[in-house]
């Protein structure tokens, strides 16, 4: 009798605990920015090998060193080493139209959530790690505020922020100008870029784009010579 009571008490307290857990999970998810919509989906296990196969078409642009977007003219962003979570959120933003770029929207529309997770794992590869021996350059005053999220080494302090180290200068300039003009909408970055002057943008871009270790162009299969490491400036 006592045993049965105990068991039913245990069961009901477990139900309470489960409910509390569900609620706290719901609150936790709800409080994440809407931009992190992928977090609300069931956890998908990334398969980078599958990602490599799927990303073959992507390499037609992202796998060619110095490949440029024609109008406007800027280098296609480097993806090798970029944060996995950031790549996932970027692809979801293209899908939803939150990030407005027709070619990438078309590319992203053809991908399932599993495809996106796999592709992101493939491009991310090993996360960038700052070299402990590298001589530290002083952070220019204009870039100081940026380093609280994007890191002094251009390696983001959290995985939902993009790494900027070694990214093409022309792409960084374009991205910052887009935030500045509110053509690319992001509550954090729109306010960060709002008051930047042209010359501040130039100083910031020069700092982050020339940091090493940094992002690289994903080598295209059978064309690995295209990934010969060049200073970012050369291809910009
Ligand atoms: C026709 C050329 C082209 C192809 C093919 C292409 N991309 Fe892109 N991609 C671009 C350009 C140009 C941009 C920059 C767009 C912008 O300014 O928002 C971009 C941006 C991105 C970004 C955002 C990078 C960042 O730093 O924010 C990701 C992620 C991305 N592409 C992934 C992919 C994937 C995955 C595929 C294949 C499914 C792909 N791309 C195919 C041209 C291309
Ligand atoms: C509070 C954190 C935070 C700070 C501080 C911050 N950023 Fe960002 N940054 C972000 C986030 C989040 C994104 C991704 C936004 C999106 O998805 O469009 C981003 C994106 C970017 C991108 C686009 C990268 C890409 O691959 O497309 C650039 C460039 C950038 N930031 C530059 C800067 C600069 C320059 C500063 C300082 C003036 C700065 N950021 C300050 C959080 C921050």
Can you give the mean pLDDT?
82
CATH architecture: Orthogonal Bundle
What is the end-to-end distance? 79 Å
The helix content is 40-55%
The structural domain count equals 1
Number of strands: 2
Shape: globular
Q: Would you state the CATH class? A: Mainly Alpha
Poorly predicted runs are 16-39, 223-235
Each distinct ligand: heme C
- CATH fold description: Cytochrome Bc1 Complex, Chain D, domain 2
Count helical runs: 11
What percent of residues are in strands? Answer: under 5%
What is the assigned CATH homologous superfamily? Answer: Cytochrome c-like domain
Strand order of the largest sheet: 1-2
* Order of secondary-structure elements: HHHEEHHHHHHHH
Major sheet: size, sense and barrel closure?
A: 2 strands, antiparallel
Radius of gyration: 21 Å
How does the helix and strand content classify structurally?
mainly alpha
How would you describe this protein?
By secondary structure, the chain is an all-alpha fold. It has one domain (45-235): Orthogonal Bundle (Cytochrome Bc1 Complex, Chain D, domain 2), CATH 1.10.760.10. Helix content is 48%, strand content 2%. It has helices at residues 2-31, 48-54, 59-62, 84-96, 102-109, 113-124, 147-150, 169-180, 187-194, 198-209, 232-235, and strands spanning 68-69, 74-75. It has a two-stranded antiparallel ribbon with strand order 1-2. β1 (68-69) and β2 form a beta hairpin. α2 crosses α6 (113-124). The chain starts with a helix and ends with a helix. Residues 55, 57-58, 60-62, 69, 76-77, 79, 87, 90-91, 99, 101, 103-104, 107, 119, 162 line the site of one heme C. One heme C binds next to α3, α4 and α5.
